[in-house]
Amino acid sequence: MHIVIIGTGITGASIARVLSIYEDIDIRIIDKEPDAGWGVSKANTGIIHPGHEDDPLKTPLRAKLCAKGNKIWRKWVKELDIPSKWPGELMLAFNGKDLREFDKYIEWGKKNNVEKMEIIDYGKLKSLENNVSPNAVGALWVPSAGQISPWEAVIALIENAVMNGVKTLFGTKVLDIVISNYKVIGVKTDKGFIEADIVINAAGLYADVVSSMAGLDFFTIHPRKGEYYVFDENSKPRVSRIIHPTPTPVTKGVYVVTTVDGSLMIGPSAKDLSPNMKEDTSTTFEGLEYVWTEAKKLVRELPSKTDIVKTFAGLRPEPSTGDFIIEAYDDPWGFINVAGIRSPGLTSAPAIAYYVVNELLINRLGLKMKNKKEWNPYRKRIRKITEMDPEELQRSIAEDYRYGKIVCTCRKVSEAEIIEAIKRIKEIGATPTLDGIKFRTLAMFGQCQGSFCRKEIANIISREMKLPLWNITIKGKGSEYVIGDIKMFFKSESHEA
Amino acid sequence: MKHKYDTIVIGGGPAGLASAIKATKLGLKTLIIEKTERLGGIPLQCIHEGFGVIYFKQNLSGPEFSYKLIKEVDRLSIDYITSGYVSEINILSDEAKQVKVISPKAYQVFETKTLIYAAGAREKTLHEINVVGDRVSGIFTAGEAQALMDIYGVMPGREVVIIGSGDVGLILTRRLILEKAKVKAVIEAMPYPGGLVRNIVQCLKDFDVPLLLGHVVKETRGRKRVEKVIVERVDENLKPLGESFSITCDTVIISAGLLPHVRMLKELGVKMDPSTRGPIVNDFFETSIRGVFAAGNALVVNDLVDYVVEQGENAAEGAYSLITKKYVRQQNIPVLFDDNIRFVVPQRITKTSDVVFYLRVKRPMKDVKIIFEEIDKVFVFSKARPSEMIRVKIKKKDLGDIKDKLHVRLYSDASPQT
How many domains, in total, are found in chain A? Predict the structure, then answer.
C-alpha cells in the first residue's frame, strides 16, 4: 500500500511517525519547502495545552484531541528527546467578570478529561508566579500545561519516521490529486507523479487548496497572523509559568512564557488575513505594539525593550468551519483531510495521528494494519555543548576538536553541532540552509542575530556541501545569502564585451 | 602550562592587543583570549586607510594596523589563545579571578589577578532600529557585509540601500560601488550625518550617492529576498511626518551604530552606564568590580582606532597599578554632565593620575566651550559633532580642587547647519 502525506508540519510528521509503526506500507511525506516544519509549525507559542479551553459542543474534535495529545506528548518527548517542560498555566482574572468565566472552562475541562484545575486567589497566584501583575485578582491554575520546542518536535518526528522507513520529498509542490473511478490513485507534483492509495492532506495553510484539488472545496483556510517578541536568554525578569489572560469572545489573548530554551517570549497578536495571504509573515508596528501593551498587563515587569533580540510573525490556519477537519470520504475514496489544524494543533498532533490511523484508516476505510516486528521509537537530539558537564566537554573536544570551536558566541554553539545538523538535514532528505541550521542548533538565535556568525555558518555549509558560498540559501531557492564572487560584475561585463 | 596570569585580556582586537602589549612591557604575565581564528579584530576586514594616524603617525589600512600590533605581540612572546571562547568568569576575590575557556585545543581553567575586557562592539540589528516587515534574504549588518566582501570574497547584493550614515556604512558604500554594485541611497534618521565629514565627502559625494537625512526605513518587503524598502520622513525627534515612499532594492545594509559588547560584563553584575551602554569605569578604566577593567569599543564606541589603543594601554596601566598596589581605590568621584553632552568617559575619577576624558556632544554645535566646573578648566572648540569624539586631558595636579563630584558643562552659541 502507498500512502502519501502532504505537509511536513507537526500534523503530517506525527502521522508519518505513527504510520511507520505498521508494516507493508510505502509512506512518502512531501513538502514544498526544502526542510521540515517551515509553515505553521515553526512560529507559534510552543504550548502543550491542557484542553480546558475548547468547547466540547462547538468544537468536539479539538476538545477531544487536545487533552489526549497533552498526555501522549509526555511519552513522545521522552522517546524523541524533545526539549520540554511542564510549568502549568495560569489563566489570569482581572475582575469579577473574568472570574465568572472560570466555571465554564472548568466544565469544559471536566468534559474533555483535564485532570486538575483549580481556581486560586491572588496569594496562591503570587506564590506560583512571582512576576504576576498585582492587578490580577485570581487565576485558573491548570498544572498539566507544558511547553515544547515546536520546530525541534517536527524535526524529531521526521528523523524518527525516516529511521523507520518513511521516505521524504522536500522542495516538491503538489499540483493535483489524481482520481480515477472515485478513488485516489496518486499525486501530481512539480517533480513528477507519485502513486498513492491513500493521500493525507496535512498541508496546513494550503489544506484548502489541496482539498479542492480532490474536489472537496467546502471549506477555506485563512491565515491568522500572530506576532511575537523574544528577549535575550539572560534578560530578567522572566516567568516561571505559562501566563495568559481570560479569553474574550474576540481573542484568546497574549501569552507570556519562558521558552524551553530559556528566553522570555510574548505574543501572539491575532490578525485575520485573507485566504490568499498564506506567505505573509511580515511583522507590523500595530501587531507588535498590541503584543507589548497586552503582555505588560499580565506581569509585574517585562525586561527592558533593549533586551529584545527578535520579533517574528507566524500564521495559524483558521478553517471556515471552526473545528478541525479530520475526515475520510467515499468520494474520492482514499483522500483524507487533516485540515484547519489551528491552536491547539501542536498539542493535538499526536492524538490526531492516532485518530487518523485508528478511526479513519482502520475503522472508516477498513484497512488492515499490522505492526512491524521491529519499530524504533527512539531518537536522540543533537549533542549540545551547553548541555555538557566539564568532563564531557573535555572528552568531546579531545575526540573532535570542533566541539571546542564556538561558532555562535551568543548561544554558545560549536562547529561540531553545525556539522551534525548538516548531516541530519541530509539524512532526512532535506536541503541544508541557514534557517535549517538555526532551528536545529539555535545558532544565530541570540542577541546579534547572526551578524557575527552567519557568514561562518554559511561557509561551513558551503565547505561541507562542496558548493560555492553563493549557492547557500537562508530558506531555499531565491533566498541566496550572497549573490556571487566579489568580481562578478566585472566578469559579467567582460562577457558582454 | 601554568594557568596563572597577572592579567587576562578578553578580545584580540586593537584594544586587547594594545593592552596586552602594554601590560607585558610593564612586566605583567599576560594571556590574550580571542574568539575568532586569528588576532587582529575588526580592522582585518577594513581594507580602507585611516588607521593609526595618531598612534603610529602613519596612515595605514586596517590589516596593516593590526599586523603592527600582532608583530609586537609575537616579539614579546605574549601567550594567546585563538578560537577561544570565554564560557565563564568567576570573581574569586578582589585579587583573583577564574576564567574558563573553550577552544579547539581543550577546555581550560585559568586564574588571573586582573581582567581586561576588550570584546569590542556589536552592530544594531533590524528590530533594534525599529524596522518591521519581511525577514528575508538580502539583509545584512555593515560589518557582516564588509567581512563577506573582503574576507570571504563574495558580493552581498546588487542594488543596495544603506540604513544609517555611520562610518562603517559610508566606507562600505564606497567599497560596494568600487565593485560595481549600485547604492541607491544612504538613509539617516537624524538631520545630520552619523559619520565623519571626510567619509561623507569621500564615500558619498564623490560617487553621487544620495544621502537622505531625516528619513527612516520603516519596512523591508520581499518574498524570498528583499524587493523594496518603505522609507518615511521624520522630524528631529524621529516623529513621522507622514510622507512615505518606497525604494526598490535587493539588499539592505544596516549601519545604524554600534553597541558595546558587554554581555559578559552584565552577567558578572558590572554596573552599566545607560548613556554609553558600556560599563561605568574610573580613570583606570576599572569597572564596578575590583580588578575588572574595560577598554576600546567594549567600554565606549569610538570613531578612531587610535583612541581604542590608548584606552587599551590605560587599562593595562590600571591593572599594573592595582597589582603593584600603586593605586588603592580610595575614592570614586562621580563625573556629572549637562544636557548638551551625550556621555563622558570615565564616569568616575580617583584623583590619583592624569585623566583623559572622552565625550560626545548630543547634536552638531559650533563655538563650543567645555568647562570642568570645580577646577575651572575650559576647552574651546570651533565645532563639535556627535560623530567626532572629543578627547581632553587633565593633569593630576589640576584635579586637586575636586571634592565629591566633578561637573562637565558645555556651552555653545548655536547649532551649525550641516
Answer: 2
